[in-house]
Records
---
Amino acid sequence: MNTLNNVTVLGGGVLGAQIAYQAAFHGKNVTVYDINDEALEAARERFNKLVSVYVEAMPDAEEGQAAKAAESISLSSDLAEAVVDADLVIEAVPEILDLKKKVFSDLAKVAPEKTIFATNSSTMVPSQYAAEAGRPDRFLALHFANNIWVQNVAEVMGTERTSNEAYDAVVAYAEETGMDPILVKKEQPGYVLNSLLVPLLNAASALYVNGVADVETIDHTWRKGTGAQSGPFQMYDVIGLRTAYNVSSASDNPSSIKFAEILKTEFLDKGKFGVASGEGFYKY
């Protein structure tokens, strides 16, 4: 399979913008699709903010490389236009199953035959919407972590029907874009990273909603006891509280449901989305 040079990212939110910018920074031809001009303008603002982040984080980069990456990214609210010559499409829409099914169903109608489809879902496995994608041999998961320029893991997970050729091409793409590919051998909800991380976050939220300890104490305990740089609620802020809400509200665990209610009333309804908005459990 040829090198995956033309990349379309579906969704210009916090992580979608990072995925797109990371690819552009490493020389890929990148288009970002989102539902309207307002969403695309927000994505453009995210690219511009990432310029200074990359300049600071990557001092050995070529002069002007960071700015050129932001300028090179194309934006479109027309799905067919956005994927017209895509080698790879990376879906980065909210963690809502019906939404992902619709996105891939719409995508399958307009994408070229050559295009590999990848989902960036952090909680779902690709076989949950493989039927909608319509190309089982060229459909898999490619999961990124937030703060992609530092936490540069890219988990590659296929289904039983993903071809070796498509899988290897996506692994190569990850390497070409500065990522450390994590080869997941079989479908696993949460992949490797979130299979380790989610139990920690769930335990922290349960301690919080049940009044065992406050946010600062929980985070302090984790940092001191393990030597970690961040506590679980600092991680929640980086991940984004909208994502935390979507995941928690879909759970049947009473503590998770209570946590989702708190996230909505005390944070989301007040415009506190985490690091992206400047405030979540902490102020930034």
---
Amino acid sequence: MPAHIVLIDAMNLIRRVYAVQERPFHYMDTLSETTKQQIVHNTIIHTVQAVRKILNNQQPTHVLAVFDSQSPCWRYKLYPDYKKGRKKMPEHLERSLTDIQDALLELHVDSLVSDEDEADDLIATLAIKVALRAQDVTIISTDKGFLPLLCEHIRVFDYFNQRLLDEQYVQDKFQVKSTQLIDLWTLSGDATNKIPGVPGIGQITAAQLLQQYQSLKGVLGATDLKQSLASKLQDHNPQMQLYQELLTLKKDIPLGFNLKDIRLNKQLSQQAV
């Protein structure tokens, strides 16, 4: 039986589940401890339910929930404004993460928590290692940062909208191929991660440039650009190199475990369900 590895972007899933549970209390200026505990309790229940559905629908042979490090990753050292202004995780949710991990373990879904890396880099590393062995990977996330990984053996699934984020989705949303996305965001910026891009170049212009010249290297080497655009690109070349590094997921992080360590015992998992 061919392997199918499901990698769950845990905080992407949990924070969205939490937001739904918290929404009825938005009218309150402050939350009582009792209310916080109730929201967290509901978040744990609904997160477990979501993972049960993922297991039932995806039918993986291996599964892993990957959590971000609680310490700032390497990107913040390179670029202090990385994700600047993003809403901080509520303390009561942060304190509950080990409880969520324990609840997932009852489904025989293990968790990987890094000391210093973002979950995205860990997921990318594992996905590439698996894909190079011609085995299939499904990444459960709504994070567009995984889309450059799309290939024959790697797919991205949006649990909340129950759809694959595939090449057609990329083309419809960004008007480029998945292999051109890093170059697109380098030019146009990535608001989610507070990466500004080149001033005056939006997504439409960036996509048009990549459609014509295929890559950022091709754009920079073009001799028929308007002088104002060529000058702007030249002036921002050092920043673009930084943006590319920030946007590119690491694929070589030492993981310290084998696939057999995350093999899903379906019989035990189904009993837990």
